[in-house]
Design a protein that fits this description.
- The chain has helices at about 25-35, 55-60, 75-85, 100-110, 155-160, 170-180, 210-230; strands spanning about 10-20, 40-45, 65-70, 90, 115-125, 150, 185-195.
- By secondary structure, the chain is α/β, with parallel strands linked by helices.
- The protein has a single domain, classed as Spore Coat Polysaccharide Biosynthesis Protein SpsA, Chain A, CATH 3.90.550.10.
- The protein has a seven-stranded mixed beta sheet.
- Helix 2 (about 55-60) links the parallel strand 2 (about 40-45) and strand 3 (about 65-70).
- Helix 6 (about 170-180) packs parallel to helix 7.
- The termini are far apart.
Length: about 230
Amino acid sequence: MTSASESERPLVSVIMAAYNAEAYIREALESALAQDWSPFEVVVVDDGSQDSTGDIVRSFPEVRYVRQENAGPSAARNTAVAHARGELIANFDSDDLLPRTRLRLQAEFLTGHPEVGAVFGRQEWLNAPSWMTRDAVYGDIDGIPLSSAMFRRNVLLDLGGYDQSFTHGEDMDLLVRMRERGVGYHVLSEVVLFRRFLETSLTGGRSPHTPLLRSLRAKLEREQDQGKGKSSA
Protein backbone atom coordinates (compact mmCIF):
# COMPACT_ATOMS: atom_id res chain seq x y z
CA MET A 1 0.00 0.00 0.00
CA THR A 2 1.02 3.60 -0.52
CA SER A 3 2.63 5.29 2.45
CA ALA A 4 0.30 8.29 2.17
CA SER A 5 -2.47 8.42 4.76
CA GLU A 6 -5.99 7.70 3.59
CA SER A 7 -6.98 11.34 4.05
CA GLU A 8 -4.27 12.35 1.59
CA ARG A 9 -5.25 9.86 -1.11
CA PRO A 10 -7.63 10.85 -3.91
CA LEU A 11 -11.09 9.32 -3.94
CA VAL A 12 -11.44 6.91 -6.87
CA SER A 13 -14.87 6.43 -8.44
CA VAL A 14 -15.38 3.12 -10.22
CA ILE A 15 -18.10 3.70 -12.82
CA MET A 16 -20.10 0.96 -14.52
CA ALA A 17 -22.74 1.13 -17.24
CA ALA A 18 -24.98 -1.95 -17.01
CA TYR A 19 -27.67 -3.30 -19.32
CA ASN A 20 -29.27 -6.73 -18.78
CA ALA A 21 -26.12 -7.78 -16.94
CA GLU A 22 -27.59 -10.24 -14.42
CA ALA A 23 -25.34 -13.13 -15.51
CA TYR A 24 -22.06 -11.55 -14.43
CA ILE A 25 -22.61 -8.29 -12.57
CA ARG A 26 -22.61 -9.78 -9.06
CA GLU A 27 -19.15 -11.28 -9.56
CA ALA A 28 -17.97 -8.05 -11.19
CA LEU A 29 -19.11 -5.93 -8.24
CA GLU A 30 -17.56 -8.32 -5.73
CA SER A 31 -14.21 -7.89 -7.46
CA ALA A 32 -14.60 -4.11 -7.48
CA LEU A 33 -15.40 -3.98 -3.78
CA ALA A 34 -12.38 -6.14 -2.91
CA GLN A 35 -9.83 -3.48 -3.92
CA ASP A 36 -6.80 -2.82 -1.71
CA TRP A 37 -7.05 0.95 -2.23
CA SER A 38 -8.96 3.38 -0.06
CA PRO A 39 -10.93 5.58 -0.44
CA PHE A 40 -13.06 4.47 -3.38
CA GLU A 41 -16.70 4.27 -4.39
CA VAL A 42 -18.64 2.27 -6.98
CA VAL A 43 -21.34 3.89 -9.12
CA VAL A 44 -23.56 1.72 -11.34
CA VAL A 45 -25.92 3.21 -13.91
CA ASP A 46 -28.59 0.74 -14.99
CA ASP A 47 -29.38 1.67 -18.60
CA GLY A 48 -32.96 0.44 -18.60
CA SER A 49 -32.33 -3.25 -17.91
CA GLN A 50 -35.27 -5.65 -18.24
CA ASP A 51 -33.75 -8.43 -16.12
CA SER A 52 -32.71 -8.62 -12.47
CA THR A 53 -29.68 -6.34 -12.86
CA GLY A 54 -31.20 -3.67 -10.63
CA ASP A 55 -32.11 -6.10 -7.87
CA ILE A 56 -28.59 -7.51 -7.85
CA VAL A 57 -26.93 -4.10 -7.68
CA ARG A 58 -29.28 -2.92 -4.92
CA SER A 59 -28.25 -5.95 -2.86
CA PHE A 60 -24.86 -4.22 -2.41
CA PRO A 61 -25.64 -1.35 0.01
CA GLU A 62 -22.20 0.19 -0.50
CA VAL A 63 -22.80 0.64 -4.26
CA ARG A 64 -24.51 3.77 -5.59
CA TYR A 65 -27.26 2.67 -7.97
CA VAL A 66 -28.80 4.94 -10.60
CA ARG A 67 -31.42 3.84 -13.11
CA GLN A 68 -32.24 5.61 -16.37
CA GLU A 69 -34.22 4.88 -19.51
CA ASN A 70 -32.19 3.01 -22.10
CA ALA A 71 -29.92 5.52 -23.83
CA GLY A 72 -26.79 3.54 -24.63
CA PRO A 73 -23.43 2.99 -22.92
CA SER A 74 -22.05 6.46 -23.63
CA ALA A 75 -25.00 8.17 -21.99
CA ALA A 76 -24.86 5.74 -19.06
CA ARG A 77 -21.16 6.43 -18.50
CA ASN A 78 -21.76 10.18 -18.63
CA THR A 79 -24.53 9.76 -16.05
CA ALA A 80 -22.17 7.74 -13.86
CA VAL A 81 -19.51 10.46 -14.06
CA ALA A 82 -22.13 13.05 -13.10
CA HIS A 83 -23.01 11.03 -9.97
CA ALA A 84 -19.41 10.20 -9.10
CA ARG A 85 -17.57 12.21 -6.46
CA GLY A 86 -14.03 11.04 -7.10
CA GLU A 87 -11.07 13.01 -8.36
CA LEU A 88 -10.13 9.89 -10.35
CA ILE A 89 -12.58 7.92 -12.52
CA ALA A 90 -12.02 4.23 -13.30
CA ASN A 91 -13.99 2.51 -16.05
CA PHE A 92 -15.32 -0.98 -15.45
CA ASP A 93 -17.61 -3.14 -17.60
CA SER A 94 -20.31 -5.25 -15.98
CA ASP A 95 -19.06 -8.57 -17.38
CA ASP A 96 -15.37 -8.21 -16.47
CA LEU A 97 -13.40 -8.69 -13.24
CA LEU A 98 -10.80 -6.58 -11.46
CA PRO A 99 -7.64 -7.79 -9.76
CA ARG A 100 -7.67 -6.37 -6.23
CA THR A 101 -4.61 -4.22 -7.02
CA ARG A 102 -6.10 -2.31 -9.95
CA LEU A 103 -7.17 0.91 -8.23
CA ARG A 104 -3.99 1.13 -6.16
CA LEU A 105 -1.66 0.67 -9.13
CA GLN A 106 -3.40 3.27 -11.26
CA ALA A 107 -4.15 5.79 -8.51
CA GLU A 108 -0.58 5.69 -7.24
CA PHE A 109 0.72 6.28 -10.76
CA LEU A 110 -1.54 9.29 -11.36
CA THR A 111 -0.73 10.69 -7.93
CA GLY A 112 2.98 10.46 -8.68
CA HIS A 113 2.69 11.80 -12.24
CA PRO A 114 0.52 14.94 -12.20
CA GLU A 115 1.38 15.64 -15.85
CA VAL A 116 -0.47 12.49 -16.98
CA GLY A 117 -4.22 12.70 -17.57
CA ALA A 118 -5.08 9.01 -17.84
CA VAL A 119 -3.53 5.62 -17.22
CA PHE A 120 -4.30 2.27 -18.82
CA GLY A 121 -3.12 -1.25 -18.05
CA ARG A 122 -2.83 -4.72 -19.47
CA GLN A 123 -5.52 -7.38 -19.58
CA GLU A 124 -5.91 -11.12 -19.23
CA TRP A 125 -8.76 -12.86 -20.99
CA LEU A 126 -11.04 -15.29 -19.19
CA ASN A 127 -12.21 -16.87 -22.46
CA ALA A 128 -10.46 -15.33 -25.47
CA PRO A 129 -11.73 -16.71 -28.81
CA SER A 130 -9.13 -18.35 -31.02
CA TRP A 131 -9.37 -15.71 -33.75
CA MET A 132 -8.07 -12.88 -31.55
CA THR A 133 -4.54 -11.75 -32.40
CA ARG A 134 -1.73 -10.60 -30.14
CA ASP A 135 -0.57 -7.02 -29.75
CA ALA A 136 2.77 -6.34 -31.46
CA VAL A 137 4.16 -4.31 -28.53
CA TYR A 138 3.01 -6.13 -25.38
CA GLY A 139 2.26 -9.53 -26.89
CA ASP A 140 -1.12 -9.60 -25.17
CA ILE A 141 -4.23 -10.96 -26.86
CA ASP A 142 -6.20 -8.04 -28.35
CA GLY A 143 -3.71 -5.50 -27.00
CA ILE A 144 -4.39 -2.81 -24.41
CA PRO A 145 -8.06 -2.50 -23.39
CA LEU A 146 -9.43 1.02 -23.48
CA SER A 147 -11.90 -0.10 -20.81
CA SER A 148 -8.94 -0.32 -18.41
CA ALA A 149 -8.67 3.46 -18.27
CA MET A 150 -8.49 5.54 -15.11
CA PHE A 151 -8.97 9.24 -15.89
CA ARG A 152 -8.59 12.40 -13.95
CA ARG A 153 -12.11 13.73 -13.51
CA ASN A 154 -11.19 17.15 -14.91
CA VAL A 155 -9.90 15.51 -18.11
CA LEU A 156 -13.27 13.83 -18.74
CA LEU A 157 -15.14 17.05 -18.03
CA ASP A 158 -12.85 19.15 -20.24
CA LEU A 159 -13.41 16.70 -23.11
CA GLY A 160 -17.17 16.86 -22.67
CA GLY A 161 -17.43 13.21 -21.66
CA TYR A 162 -18.37 10.39 -24.00
CA ASP A 163 -20.00 11.15 -27.35
CA GLN A 164 -23.51 9.78 -26.89
CA SER A 165 -24.01 9.27 -30.62
CA PHE A 166 -21.67 6.25 -30.47
CA THR A 167 -23.30 2.88 -29.78
CA HIS A 168 -19.83 1.30 -29.51
CA GLY A 169 -16.31 2.61 -29.92
CA GLU A 170 -17.05 5.57 -27.64
CA ASP A 171 -13.90 4.89 -25.63
CA MET A 172 -11.75 5.00 -28.79
CA ASP A 173 -13.38 8.30 -29.76
CA LEU A 174 -12.59 9.70 -26.31
CA LEU A 175 -8.95 8.63 -26.69
CA VAL A 176 -8.73 10.33 -30.10
CA ARG A 177 -10.07 13.58 -28.62
CA MET A 178 -7.78 13.25 -25.61
CA ARG A 179 -4.71 12.90 -27.81
CA GLU A 180 -5.93 15.78 -29.99
CA ARG A 181 -5.94 18.00 -26.90
CA GLY A 182 -2.41 16.88 -26.00
CA VAL A 183 -3.48 15.07 -22.81
CA GLY A 184 -0.74 12.67 -21.74
CA TYR A 185 -1.43 9.05 -20.85
CA HIS A 186 0.53 5.99 -19.77
CA VAL A 187 0.15 2.20 -20.02
CA LEU A 188 1.14 0.19 -16.94
CA SER A 189 2.95 -3.09 -17.43
CA GLU A 190 0.73 -4.77 -14.82
CA VAL A 191 -2.58 -6.54 -15.50
CA VAL A 192 -5.47 -4.37 -14.30
CA LEU A 193 -8.39 -6.16 -15.95
CA PHE A 194 -9.69 -9.69 -16.38
CA ARG A 195 -11.74 -9.56 -19.56
CA ARG A 196 -14.69 -11.71 -20.62
CA PHE A 197 -15.64 -12.17 -24.27
CA LEU A 198 -19.35 -12.26 -25.03
CA GLU A 199 -20.83 -12.60 -28.51
CA THR A 200 -23.88 -10.69 -27.28
CA SER A 201 -21.95 -7.61 -26.14
CA LEU A 202 -22.00 -4.43 -28.22
CA THR A 203 -18.42 -5.01 -29.29
CA GLY A 204 -18.49 -8.80 -29.42
CA GLY A 205 -17.08 -9.95 -32.72
CA ARG A 206 -17.15 -6.42 -34.18
CA SER A 207 -14.33 -4.60 -35.87
CA PRO A 208 -13.24 -1.40 -34.11
CA HIS A 209 -12.37 0.21 -37.44
CA THR A 210 -15.76 1.76 -38.25
CA PRO A 211 -16.05 3.90 -35.07
CA LEU A 212 -12.32 4.67 -35.22
CA LEU A 213 -12.60 5.95 -38.80
CA ARG A 214 -15.58 8.06 -37.76
CA SER A 215 -13.57 9.56 -34.87
CA LEU A 216 -10.57 10.28 -37.09
CA ARG A 217 -12.81 11.85 -39.74
CA ALA A 218 -14.34 14.13 -37.11
CA LYS A 219 -10.84 15.05 -35.92
CA LEU A 220 -9.81 15.96 -39.48
CA GLU A 221 -12.93 18.10 -39.90
CA ARG A 222 -12.15 19.98 -36.67
CA GLU A 223 -8.60 20.63 -37.88
CA GLN A 224 -9.91 21.88 -41.23
CA ASP A 225 -12.38 24.21 -39.49
CA GLN A 226 -9.59 25.58 -37.32
CA GLY A 227 -7.47 26.16 -40.42
CA LYS A 228 -10.29 28.06 -42.12
CA GLY A 229 -10.73 30.18 -39.02
CA LYS A 230 -7.06 31.14 -38.99
CA SER A 231 -6.98 31.95 -42.73
CA SER A 232 -9.98 34.29 -42.42
CA ALA A 233 -8.59 36.11 -39.41
